[in-house]
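Researcher: Structure prediction, please.
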Amino acid sequence: MAHYHNSNQINSPHSGTQVIAVASGKGGVGKTNISANLAICLAQAGKRVTLLDADMSLGNLDVLLNIHSKYNIAHVVNGRKQIEEVLHTGPLGINVVCGASGIEQLANLGDFQRVRLVNQLSRLHDLSDVILIDSAAGIAKPVVAFCLAADQTLVVTTTEATAMTDAYSMIKVLVKNEYQGRISLVINMADNVKQGQKIYRQMADVARHFLGVHIYCAAVLIRDTSLPNAVRMRKPVVLAAPKSRIAASLTQLSNKLAQNTARCDSQPFFRRVANWFS
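Model: Predicted structure follows.
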């Protein structure tokens, strides 16, 4: 679509911004928790972080971070607010763009709304060293578009067979769409490191054999009661229980992510999103 490629439409972004999408084939695997905690860990490491809830119909980052959001991404899409007006300040000064709740039509944006959303989101580059995208579960087109445009995608799975199958479906879609970024697996809620590593190897072997692609192991996160306790407190676990095992693992993962440099692509991230949407 021609209007996606009008160079005047999108501001030139902060070139060093790294964009990380957190995705999963199915819901309930802990993706939003991981996104929120990683954002805080990266902020603790001195990064300017923007956390974007890209779930257009069931966004729940605000609940997890105890943010009372009057405005969210829906207000940007319908033209009532600019992106700067819907930014909330989360823990440690992270910028948070809340998702919409129960607004089904947002999952199916029209062309004009999509262009407006992309133009608005492109402004986040100037405010951020890292943009973390908590995408919706599943492999619908808008979810895949955000992942395809990111420098790297963390695909979250648990040890359950259904979660693994759905995570593999996500990887397959990314590969079939010739994704240029790094795909990494996060095995969440593992009983122990050995179990998590075994699942990673199984999935990496299948991906190498059938898709011809290397999948990285981002982290194995062990089941930890600190996490549900923190959720009940509406506080990210890295702040609620900083000495817990899960907090240490998430900090380690954020350090790893901070070291991985963004892919060398002259095209700004949200322009890439627009191209994938078209």
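Model: The mean pLDDT is 86.
Researcher: Thanks, that helps.
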